[in-house]
Write a structure and sequence with these properties.
The complex is a heterodimer. Chain A is mainly α. Among the domains of chain A are: about 60 residues, Orthogonal Bundle (3-methyladenine DNA Glycosylase II, Chain A, domain 3); about 60 residues, Alpha-Beta Plaits (2-Layer Sandwich). Chain A contains 6 helices and 4 strands. The longest helix of chain A is centred in the N-terminal third of the chain and has 27 residues. The mean pLDDT of chain A is about 80. Classes of the chains: A mainly alpha, B mainly alpha.
């Protein structure tokens, strides 16, 4: 009986002391994460293009939380600045032209017959959206490409084009309706009178 | 001094934990697809293995032995290892964010690495002293890292080479591991320990 009691007591003592150590460590070594950084990061477009002067979107989110201007993100454009201004409760500012201008969403496309397989664009891509290996043709995964155009500059044979995004579910817009879609007796319009 | 050197050589090469004693095979097969992750895993394992080897030695000598509770060693060691891993994670996260990002998810994974428990139990079985326990744990970890990094470097090459289709993927990995194990048998007889 006493053997069992000793065993249970010893294990209990060990478990309690370890629990105490861990509990102490959890308080003592607590890491203060800043939840605002996560919120800012989720508003940024995640192109990881570095046009803001930071090596990616999360470092820029960190910098904004530390008081940097919110108008340094060309890919996000006015919409992102407005969202950031709402979140941080500051005045929205116009986009800082020094960091680039807002362009329609693009994707990089490699002209595959000209690619020499140098892997330089793969190293430049911040989000690993380029497939290929040395001396083999490379290609861009279109669904992953954020259109940051960081791969264009290192290409030695200039075989990467930035093309506007092909129309898909994400980028589809209503087409502008034809004029005079409703039938009318009036004949003052030149198109109608011509027909 | 020679004894300590012999322990190192023995654990790293002759009685390599992965290829000769077949411990810690899950991370050996699991995280060896990329050299980078293999290095992260090796670093984390080296750290934890050495530390837990010492801690379990201390727990055994100063708690279990005086109370005559040697039969509780397995459960105690599991407890010790889990606590050491958790504590290391907390401390590393606070003191060195860079190291934490490097070791990241590998730290908790090590809790279930059988090589860690194996080293703790073998330390007791071989009646190693304090310093010997440290060296034994460290040597085991270095041996594990060596094999893991070699293996992952090979797997990276194999992944892009022309492997016959029945052997693609894990199958060729298993065969490679078997061949490596055969090669490491060549070290038998280098030292006797």
């Amino acid at each position: 009986m006493s053997v069992i009691t000793t065993a249970i007591l010893a294990l209990l003592a060990l478990a309690v002391s370890f629990g105490a150590i861990l509990g102490f460590a959890a308080v003592r070594f607590k890491v203060e994460g800043n939840p605002i950084v996560d919120q800012i990061d989720s508003l940024l477009p995640q192109t990881q293009c570095g046009q803001c002067g930071h090596p990616g979107c999360r470092p820029y989110a960190q910098a904004i939380a530390d008081g940097e201007d919110i108008n340094k993100c060309p890919p996000g454009g006015e919409a992102t600045i407005q969202a950031l201004a709402d979140l941080l409760d500051v005045e929205p500012q116009p986009l800082d032209a020094e960091h680039g201008e807002e362009k329609p969403k693009q994707v990089a496309v490699i002209r595959e017959e000209e690619c020499i397989g140098c892997t330089k664009c793969i190293q430049a891509c911040p989000i690993d959206a380029i497939l290929g290996s040395a001396k083999h043709m490379h290609t861009v995964i279109e669904s992953e490409c954020t259109g940051c155009d960081l791969c264009v500059e290192p290409c030695p044979v200039d075989c990467i084009d930035m093309l506007p995004l092909a129309q898909g579910i994400q980028s589809w817009h209503w087409s502008v309706p034809r004029k005079h879609i409703i039938a009318s007796d009036k004949t003052h319009s030149p198109e109608v009178s011509a027909s | 001094m020679t004894d300590y050197l012999l322990i190192l050589v023995s654990t790293i090469l002759v009685n390599n934990f992965v290829l000769v004693q077949f411990l810690g095979l899950c991370p050996f097969m699991g995280v060896s697809n990329k050299l980078e992750t293999a290095m992260g895993m090796s670093l984390a394992t080296t750290f934890v293995l050495t530390l837990s080897s010492v801690c379990s030695y201390l727990a055994f000598t100063y708690l279990l032995q005086p109370l005559g509770l040697e039969y509780l060693q397995t459960i105690t060691f599991i407890l010790v290892i889990a606590v050491v891993v958790q504590f290391t994670e907390l401390v590393v996260r606070k003191t060195s964010p860079l190291l934490y990002r490097l070791l990241g998810i590998f730290l908790p994974l090590i809790t279930t690495n059988c090589a860690v428990l194996g080293v703790a139990l073998l330390n007791i079985k071989k009646q190693n002293g304090f310093l010997e326990s440290i060296l034994y744990g460290f040597g085991a970890a270095v041996g594990f890292s060596l094999v893991l990094i070699l293996f992952s470097a090979m797997r990276e090459r194999i992944a892009v080479s022309d492997v016959p289709s029945p052997f693609k993927g894990s199958a060729i990995g298993m065969i490679t591991a078997g061949l490596m194990s055969l090669a490491f048998m060549g070290f038998t007889g280098l030292v006797n320990i």
